C-alpha cells in the first residue's frame, strides 16, 4: 500500500491510501471514524458489489445505508435530501461519520451532504471508479448540479481520508475506465510532461488493466492532485488549471442532459477544444494538437462534440462557469504540452472559431 | 452610528454597523460589494417596505432580486433552490455579492445560498427584525430546516458585514418585537447579569420602542454575540451556550409545524423549560426561575408550551439536536442567572419531570 498526503492547514491534512485489497482492511477505515454512528452513501450499481465488504469491517458501529440511483442525472438537491432524510430518521448526531462509497457522483453528493448536515460532519471517500480515484475524491470539491449548470451548488469540504482500492477497478466497465483516463491524461497535459510520455507508452497496458500500470497511474495522478490542492485549496490560482477541458465539458454535460456523456468523456472532448483554442492563440503547434487528440483516442475516448449543440448554446452555457468573472468567459489553455496557463478571458473571435470548427 | 467587530482569523473579521438611517447610506453597503453583480434576497413582507431603498444605492450595479414568501415554513431546500435559479438565470459569477434583506429566515437562507453558490460567494446581512439584528445575522450560522429537525442543513459562513438599521423596527409588529426580545434576554441570562438588570428596568421602554433603549439593547446584544463567536466560531465550546432554550424551542417549532410559533416565542418557552430543569438539578432557586419567567412575561412572550405536544414527542424531537453526541440529548442549563453551563447530558428522570410539568 502507498500513502500520499494532502497537506492543508489547521490539522486538516489527510492521507490517500492506494493499493490492492484495501476494502478488506477495516482498520484503515475505522481509524478515521469519530463515533459509533456511521452512514454509508452509495448507489444501486456499487452497493451490490462492495457494500457488504465495507459493512463487514463496521460490526461494532451503528451503521445506516442510503442507496441512490446510479447516474449523473441524480446529482441534484432533490436526491441530496434523501441523504439528510436517512441521517435524521436515524437520529445521527454531529459527531457521526459519512462514508461515500462510489464514483464521482456519490463522492460529490456524499461530501456535500457531510458538509451541510448539522453544518458539517466527518466523511471518508471510498472511490470506486478510476475517475474518482485519480481526481474527484481528492481535494474537497463537493456539490450537486443545477439544470442550468454543472456543480453550481456545493462546498469545499475535505475528507478524513481517501481509500483507493485498485481491486474495485476489476468491475469497472470499459467506458468508465476510459472516462477515468481522461483525468489521468489531464495531469500530464497541465503539469507533468514526463507522465504524458509515460502514458503514451503505457496506454495499451492501462486499457488491458495491468495492475502495476494502473496503480502507478493512480498514484502519480493523486500526487499531482495533492500537490495542486495543497498549494491552492480554494482555487484562487493554480487549482483552476485542473479544469482543463472542463469549461467546454461542463457545457456538453449540461447541454446534452446530465448522464448522456460520462464526465470523463465530456472532459476529453473539451480537452480537444482547449487544445484547438490554444493553437489558434499561438501556444500549441498543429503537431501538439494532433498529439493531444491521439492520446485521447488511444485511451478510447471521444473527441468529437455532440452534433446537436450549436455554437450559441456552448457560449450560453459557458457563461455560467465558476471561473468566470462578472459573466465573462474564462478558460484554461495549454502554453505547451505539460504546462497550463492560469484562467484567461478569451476574445469572442477565436473562441467562436474553435466552436464553429467543432460544433453542430 | 456604532461599529462593532466580529474578530475571526484569516482576514474574515467583519463589522456590524448599528444605528438609525443606515439603509440610506449606500456607501456602507457598496464598500463591501466585490463586483458589479449584486443579488438581493428578501421576502414578500419586507421587499415592499425596504427593497427600493436598498436598490436606490446600487444604481451602478447589475442587480437581481429573489423574493421568497414570508415565514419559517418556507425555510426549506425547495425554496433555497429558487435563489440558485435566480442567480443562474442571470449568469451570476463567483465574484458576485448576495444581500440578505429580511429577518432570520431570509438571513439564514441567503447566507446558506451564498455559502453554496459556486462553492461560496460574498454576502451581506441587512437584518430587518429585532431578532435578526441581535442574534441570527451575526456569527455565520446559516441553513434551512428539515421536516425532522430545525436548522439541520446548513453551513458556517460569515458575512462581509451586518447593517442593523434601527429605523426598520418601526414597521415591526408587536409580536415580532417581543420575539426578538427573547434573544436579547438570553444574553443577560447566559453571560451578562448587569444587562439582565438593565432589561428588567427598561422593558417598558423597549416595548414602547424608545429609540435609545432599543439601540442600546441591540448594541449590547451584538457585543455579547460577537465576543462569543470570536472566541468559538465553530461551536466547539462556549458558543453552544447561545442555544439556551433552543433545544426545547426547536422541538416546539418542529413539532407544531414551522411557522406556528415564531422562533423567539419558542425560545422563550424553551428558556422557561431550561430554567425549570436548572432548578431541578440544584443550580437555580425557585426565586431565580420566577425571575426568568417574569422578564419573559414582561417582554410579552409566552412561557406555556403548546398543549398538543406530549413528553414523548419532545424527547423524540430533542434526540436530533445538533448538540447531541451519539444520539444522547444534551442541553444548556443555567448555573446562575447570568451564567450558563456548557452543554451537558441530562438524566432521563429530571428531563421528564420538567417536560411532564409543562407538556400536554
From TrEMBL, chains A, B:
Q: Which residues form the 3-dehydroquinate synthase C-terminal domain?
A: 180-324
Give the reaction(s) catalysed.
7-phospho-2-dehydro-3-deoxy-D-arabino-heptonate = 3-dehydroquinate + phosphate
Sequence ranges assigned to domain 3-dehydroquinate synthase N-terminal in this UniProt record: 66-178
Q: Where do the annotations place Zn(2+) binding?
A: 183, 246, 263
> Which GO molecular function, any one, fits this protein according to its record?
3-dehydroquinate synthase activity
* Recorded family membership: Belongs to the sugar phosphate cyclases superfamily. Dehydroquinate synthase family.
Q: What protein name applies here?
A: 3-dehydroquinate synthase
Amino acid at each position: 500500500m502507498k500513502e500520499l498526503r494532502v497537506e492543508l492547514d489547521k490539522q486538516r491534512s489527510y492521507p490517500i491510501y492506494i493499493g490492492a485489497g484495501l476494502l478488506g482492511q477495516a482498520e484503515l477505515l475505522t481509524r478515521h471514524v469519530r463515533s459509533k454512528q456511521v452512514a454509508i452513501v452509495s448507489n444501486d450499481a456499487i452497493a451490490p458489489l462492495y457494500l457488504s465488504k465495507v459493512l463487514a469491517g463496521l460490526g461494532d458501529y451503528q451503521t445506516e445505508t442510503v442507496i441512490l440511483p446510479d447516474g449523473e442525472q441524480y446529482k441534484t438537491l432533490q436526491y441530496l435530501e434523501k441523504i439528510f432524510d436517512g441521517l435524521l430518521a436515524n437520529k445521527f448526531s454531529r459527531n457521526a461519520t459519512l462514508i461515500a462509497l462510489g464514483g464521482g457522483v456519490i463522492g460529490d453528493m456524499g461530501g456535500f451532504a457531510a458538509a451541510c448536515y448539522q453544518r458539517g460532519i466527518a466523511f471518508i471517500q471510498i472511490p470506486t471508479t478510476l475517475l474518482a480515484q485519480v481526481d474527484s475524491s481528492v481535494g474537497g470539491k463537493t456539490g450537486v448540479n443545477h439544470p442550468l449548470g454543472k456543480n453550481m451548488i456545493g462546498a469545499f469540504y475535505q475528507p478524513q481520508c481517501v481509500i483507493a482500492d485498485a481491486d474495485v477497478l476489476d468491475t469497472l466497465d470499459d467506458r468508465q475506465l476510459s472516462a477515468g483516463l481522461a483525468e489521468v491524461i489531464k495531469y500530464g497535459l497541465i503539469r507533468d510532461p514526463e507522465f504524458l510520455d509515460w502514458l503514451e507508452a503505457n496506454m495499451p497496458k492501462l486499457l488491458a488493466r495491468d495492475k502495476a500500470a494502473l496503480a502507478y497511474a493512480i498514484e502519480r495522478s493523486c500526487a499531482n492532485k495533492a500537490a495542486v490542492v495543497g498549494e491552492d485549496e480554494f482555487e484562487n490560482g493554480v487549482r483552476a488549471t485542473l479544469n482543463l477541458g472542463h469549461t467546454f465539458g461542463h457545457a456538453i454535460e449540461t447541454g446534452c442532459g446530465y448522464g448522456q456523456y460520462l464526465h470523463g468523456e465530456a472532459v476529453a472532448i473539451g480537452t480537444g477544444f482547449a487544445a484547438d483554442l490554444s493553437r489558434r492563440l499561438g501556444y500549441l503547434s498543429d503537431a501538439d494538437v494532433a498529439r493531444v487528440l491521439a492520446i485521447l483516442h488511444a485511451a478510447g475516448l471521444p473527441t468529437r462534440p455532440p452534433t446537436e449543440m450549436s455554437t450559441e448554446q456552448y457560449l450560453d452555457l459557458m457563461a455560467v462557469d465558476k471561473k468566470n468573472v462578472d459573466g465573462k468567459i474564462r478558460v484554461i489553455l495549454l502554453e505547451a504540452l505539460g504546462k497550463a496557463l492560469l484562467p484567461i478571458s478569451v476574445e469572442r473571435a477565436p473562441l467562436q472559431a474553435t466552436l464553429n470548427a467543432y460544433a453542430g
